[in-house]
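WARN  no MSA supplied for this record, continuing single-sequence
INFO  ligand: NAP
INFO  echoing inputs
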Amino acid sequence: MNDGKICVSICAETADEFIENIKRAEEYADVIELRFDCLEPNQIYKTLARLNSKKPLLATFRPKEQGGKRNINYEKRKIFWQNLPEKFDFADLEFDLESEICNLKLQKIFSFHDFSGVPENLDEIYKNLSGAIKIAVQAEDIADSIAVWKLLERAKSENKKIIPIAMGASGAWTRILGLAHGAFMTYASLDAGKETARGQISARDLIETYCVKELNENTEIYGVIGNPVVHSVSPSMHNAAFKFHNLDAVYIPFEIKNLDEFIKKFIRKETREIDLNFKGFSVTIPHKQAIIEYLDETDETAKTIGAVNTVKIENGKLYGCNTDAQGFIEPLKNYGDLKKAKIAVLGAGGAARACIYALKKENADVTIFARDINKAESLAKEFDASFADFKFQMTNFEDFDVLVNATPLGMKGELETETPVLAEQIESVKLVYDLVYNPFQTRLMTEADKANVPKIGGLAMLVAQASAQQKIWTELDAPLNEMSRAALVKLKQ
Ligand code: NAP
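INFO  complex generated
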């Protein structure tokens, strides 16, 4: 347990909404930040008059040029602070007000924000801020978060309280790991989707998914590296598994554009610029192939599939493997022997490669259907499978036992209402396996229901590949039920 605080930030336009949000925030917050700059000006004093909370309160009244919501001139800010009632424990102040509010009897946090990047004179800015300080810079990629993170070490040696934040998805890890490394506070949103700053994480996720107050400097760090990863279900699944086994480990989304910089500056002992206790990571789009050149060893399965989705770090060495094939085949094997089973795989991308590899190992009879027939043909050659020289929309799959969808058709977003095939095309197959896991029930699965055909959804593969990763990292059997439940809760959010 560290002694950092979770500060839930409230931003609303009316007094009623503000007061209601404060009540809700009390469940998770150690401190509640009230962003008075969000309120309609005529609501500020109404809100102040009604304020009453059992949690310590932090007042913020930030002008637009420093990241606040409204244009507030210097005079109005001065008057606000000079008339603040004694209901507050903390004030988040901009540096220019320092001389005006020396009489405020609460803990002052002087803050600096740069929404455009990382200023070159960050050290000077740090030196000029006295007392407890908050420094927030914008990270466009993960390496941009290093400079602000390094201030933590410095502040610790100088006995200075600091909240270092790298804003943006690439800096979200600083919000998760800050408390473990001595940050005084971390800011959180009340609800997912109601962030008051870029990259902010909900208080519920900080507590329930990442357990941020239980982390320390020696906590083992795992994560998913990719771009984008903010909506990944993997942190929910893996953290549920770590919690089940009571391990001092955390799994974090690392949004990474430049893979080379990440490996050099965060991972490799010889070159890294900050010292985090990385033990492994999942790899997702677009780094699954590119990661291979950075590894000390890659296993045969990953080499044949041509992609690594799992890296384990041991004694400074990076070992890569692929659990997608195992994750795909495990749920399917529950339905019987696959030897000579006739399987139609729709799609010829990365997921299809892992499926075909696993199916061929089981001696299944695989036919690839793809919108680009040349891709289907070359994949078929590579894996000694068959391919169809016509589109899957034109086919009745009466000769097949299983139909696997390895295209994104049906995936949340623009493709959600789409299906690769209709009920009447699949009436005679014995099983439909849709790799798409979000939404939980896809349009294809609804077509399978209509045709009265059993189905497997993509969540089964997602959980099975993650549980294989857990086994590689921790050498323990993963708790499948806990991981599935955590993934489902996240998907429904
Ligand atoms: P990918 O490498 O981009 O391959 C997608 C394949 O689908 C390609 O063959 C692509 O054709 C084809 N395709 C794309 N849009 C299409 C459309 N509108 N109509 C017909 N075909 C289309 O993607 P991936 O990594 O293989 O992933 C495919 C799906 O599997 C995704 O929905 C992903 O979420 C899911 N998946 C699930 C799991 C799991 O654990 N459940 C794991 C991995 C992937 P072109 O090559 O012609 O573009």
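The radius of gyration is 26 Å.
INFO  checksum written, moving to next record
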